[in-house]
Amino acid sequence: MWEAGAFLSIDVVEAALSAAMGPWRCLLLLPLLAPALRAQQQQFMEYVERRLTLLEERISQWYEQSSRYSSELRDFKNQVLGMLETAEKEREALRAEAEAAAVRMERLEREVDYLETQNPAPPCLEVDEALMEKQVATAKQRKNEKYSKVTDCSDTIGSIRAMKILKRFGSSSGLWTKDAAGSTEKIYVLDGTANDTVYVFPRMREFTLFSATRKAARIKLPYPWVGTGHLVYDGHLYYIRQQGSFQVIKFNLANKTVVDSSVFPAEEQIPVFGLSPFTYIEMAADEEGLWAIYATKEDEKNICLAKLDPSSLDIEQMWDTPCPRENAEGAFVVCGALHVVYNTRLPSRSRVQCVFDVSGTLSPDDASLVYFPKRYGSHSSLKYSPRERQLYAWDDGYQIIYRMEMKKKLEL
């Protein structure tokens, strides 16, 4: 093949030389030029062969890559199909579970409807007038009896030394507190004097560092509260509801249900503090247990005190105190002694000016005037923590902690 190509090329060269130089001279030069022409032709064919070899290598490489990509794509397709098949099976299983749950729920609703028709439940918070009169009569019989302490607590407030302003949150009136009988570090906030949503912060850090309530859980109460005299005690919120008469609602904060409720057995109640007209009952807790601070028209000048059973909300004992309502802004109980905080119509420096010890172990000398750290405002709530020996105060929208120094009572 290549030789035929070579002769053809020599003939072409010979024809060209004959035309240019004549036939005799062409015959003389042709033997000299033939080897050079054959060598050049050989080099050209080697070049073409190298290019073809390189092209074949690239085609082979492309074929290998395309085969690998095809194999990977096929594996990925099989994987996706397997996942889709699994997802479809799970979807069918969830659908079957949802249908079964719906059937069980429907059956449960039918059973509940049947039980309600057989045993109709009475209204939860209807006021039983006869029971209320009996409670009032029993409470009056035990009024001002000598109190037998359940603990050996013998401390009273020596001074209020430290004040720490945590932040400003919510409206001008409200309350914030910890559980007075528990070890939890949760912070409970009830903003305003008429609301139904409790904010629960997991720790003090979340409450102080964040301006909004995005770190707080929200608990919606079944009934709105009135005033700022509420209390968190042993995992329950004791709050005041007004429905004609005033009711104490015991609400479980864990399962968010009403555990108990009771109409407060006091007639013709009036605001307990002269400077806080929105609070009719102030719930308080100390080392002795649960208390209620209130006032009635029967003795409208002075504040009254009652000891409550936290389990049943029954009144255990009641007292008329010598502490006046006028210019009172708040109160709390420490070791069985009521401490009433006073101020002025134009907010000035708050002070504990009246102390009433239900056990009679506090001498008049111990009931000294105790001033709060210098700050001109007015407290809408003061919540005592027996475990920490400090007060959680709400002062015109500011949340404040007061730390107290205690001293021993001088018994009479």
TrEMBL record:
Keywords: Coiled coil, Developmental protein, Disulfide bond, Glycoprotein, Secreted, Signal. One of its GO terms (biological process) is signal transduction. Transmembrane segments: none annotated. It holds the Pfam family OLF. SMART domains: OLF. It comes from the Eukaryota. It is found in: Secreted. GO terms for cellular component: extracellular space. Its main location: secreted. PANTHER family: OLFACTOMEDIN-LIKE PROTEIN 3 (PTHR23192:SF8), OLFACTOMEDIN-RELATED (PTHR23192). Belongs to the OLFML3 family. This is Uncharacterized protein. It comes from Melopsittacus undulatus (Budgerigar). The lineage of its organism: Eukaryota, Metazoa, Chordata, Craniata, Vertebrata.
